[in-house]
Amino acid sequence: MKVIVPFAPGGGSDTLARVLVRKIQNRPGEHAPWVIINVPGAGGTIGSRRVRKAKPDGHTLLFLHDGILTAKYAGQSPFGPEAFTPVGATGSLGMVICVPEASPFQTLNDLLVAAEASPDTVTFAANIGAPSYFMARSLEQEKPGASFRYVQSGGGARRFADLSGGHVQSTAFSVSEYLNFREGGIRALAVLDESRHPALPTVPSALEQGYSVTYRNLQGWWAPAETPAPVVESLQSVLRDAFESPALRRYSEEQCLEPDFLDSRELAAAMIQKSEMLVGLDLEFERRYLPPVGLFLMIGVALGGLLTIPSPAAGRSLTPTSTIRQSLSKRLGLAALLVGFIVSLSFPLGMFLPAGILFMGAAGLIISGFENLRATILVSIAAPLSLYLFLSSLLGIDLP
């Protein structure tokens, strides 16, 4: 069983996933290994894409909080919860807004007034498209004219390093992350909840400070779409038993995790309710106005590759100068094709097998022209297919 955690090790999501998996592994009669695979990057969308493309056989799970929804609304991902099968949710976490210990901002109002007085100068570390970004946008909406300068930062562990190191001026953490990090030189300005958190009695809520922003981050488990209902029910039962065990109850209390377990239907309903909260809120990152550089690059590479394919008569009566030029042209064409192959896999619709066949076919034509067309076609199909089967079936590597 592969559990994809789309963040770097050390953050709140990674820690909770490891505690739950350890409890599942210790269950009597549990023989199948549960392995956590950290796939950080792009606000959790790289890891979620891997699960979206996995086989719906119950052997791959995604552990992702509300980022599965906010990434879609932020324009970071073309898909959201609808692209997966909900399995269940293992509690929710309250959130806090934090600054370095030596920060001049003593209250949430101080922070937002500064962001209003000097727009786009107060830095806020956020995983663009993830809940941390959503919370900052919500605060901006509560203070018209306020605008943070967003600094892309990964999961909780990475944001803590950026904040404590003085690289950014503010960020958001879950309550459990803050409890683990607060001795490292950071300070909480506000709890984003209906009232003060019992574990942080001296930290006022945003509501107390006049800002109507509340947020709880739901910790969801997701399977690939079309996973059979009996498989989902079995996984749901395993997660519920582990989460509701006495050991996990104690851990939930220590980490300020709301211990309510949601089944698949309740998780789906919760996502619908949260999506309604996002309607009308501008979450899209500032780079939304830039041209689609990746698409232009792919088109350019494809055209460059076509221009380097020699004609059927190539190779006859060539002068030394033309031979050198053709050799250089072939090398440049192969390099361009390789770049195009790699770039294509980074797109939501990128798939290893068809991209590999196209790459090998075009490379074969560049190298040998049309003289060995049959061999080129056979190799362009056999080589990527063999490599795909070797990496995915024998080594268990998830390919796009």
Q: Can you walk through the features of this model?
A:
- This protein has 400 residues and is an alpha/beta fold.
- The protein has three domains: 2-91 and 217-285, Bordetella uptake gene, domain 1 (D-Maltodextrin-Binding Protein, domain 2, 3-Layer(aba) Sandwich); 94-191, Periplasmic binding protein-like II (D-Maltodextrin-Binding Protein, domain 2), CATH 3.40.190; 291-394, no CATH class.
- It has 14 helices and ten strands.
- Strands 1, 2, 3, 4, 5, 6, 7, 8, 9 and 10 form a ten-stranded mixed beta sheet that branches.
- The radius of gyration is 25 Å and the shape is globular.
- The model is unreliable at 284-291 and 311-315 (pLDDT under 50).
Comma- or semicolon-separated keywords:
single chain; 400 residues; alpha/beta; D-Maltodextrin-Binding Protein, domain 2; 3 domains; 10-stranded mixed sheet; 14 helices; 46% helix; globular
Estimate what percentage of residues fall within beta strands: 15-25%
What is the CATH level 1 assignment of the largest domain? Answer: Alpha Beta
Seen as an oligomer or otherwise, the chain set is single chain
Sketch the major β-sheet: 10 strands, mixed
Q: Roughly what is the average pLDDT, rounded to an integer?
A: 83
| Stretches with pLDDT under 50, minimum 5 residues | 284-291, 311-315
